[in-house]
Description:
There is one protein chain. The chain is an alpha/beta fold. The protein has a domain at about 30-220: 3 Solenoid (UDP N-Acetylglucosamine Acyltransferase, domain 1), CATH 2.160.10.10. The chain is built from 7 helices and 15 strands. The chain has helices at about 5-10, 35-50, 55-60, 65-80, 85-100, 225-255, 255-260; strands spanning about 100, 105-110, 115, 120, 125-130, 135, 140, 155, 160, 165, 170, 175-180, 185, 195, 200-205. Strand 14 and strand 15 (about 200-205) form a beta hairpin.
Amino acid sequence: MVDPINYSEVTGEQQPDKSLSVPAPSTKQETRLNWWQGFLEDIDCVFERDPAARNRLEVVLTYPGFHALLSHRIAHWLWQHRCKLFARYLSAFARWLTLIEIHPGARIGRRFFIDHGAGVVIGETTLIGNDVTLYHGVTLGGTSWDKGKRHPTLRDGVVIGAGAKVLGPISIGKGARVGANSVVVKDVPEEMSVVGIPGRVVLPIHCRRITEHGIDLDHHLMPDPVGKAISSLIDRIDGLEREIKQLKGEESGKNPSASNGSSQPVNGRNPDGDLQASAPPESAPNPNCR
């Protein structure tokens, strides 16, 4: 069975005010499910986020993300009932089978989906809410050797792009997105997007397109903050060059020698700036020469 996630139980935080947040990623009523209902829900959530899925049998037989999640549900139950050796053994077997490593101590909510899956690592104290999507190569890791909370918390509706690293006991807000290959080491607000190394918040909710299911799959449509900064610098340089040309034109208008086309040398130099050769002075006549 999958129990509703209580964030304050693990992180010591107050739960966010639902009246101030964007509508939840899923409109399904959050009720306690038995094992069969949870099994079917884990299968059906694949169809909302992967257009390649055709039927339930295909998901059950061929999706490594589903295999890893199913194994984790069992391993987590064993972990909670103090059968930790068997839980770790089942987790290790699932890693060998699927290339996805999920520690049996991690708590994962409903409708969790791992697409492709190879290389995903989820640490022991990770807390994952409902309707969360991970792509291949994602790491939810720690940054210390402390025994306490050392892995991230992902709230409902979070999407983590391929190859992203979310490190430390940080919180990724509800509905947030993390771009591919980003490295996130700080908290991310709700409904925001993060890209880069280290991760930077770049895209608010009103700039995004949300599907009818409330899940934003356009994680590839990420702005480039570095490219935007370079573009701004280029525009600034172009503006400065125009100002310099304008100032040169005004200075030329104030110079009379330049305006009337005079070619008189100034200080021994011609208008081009070259030295002007002067004629030698005439010598006085020698009285001895007659």
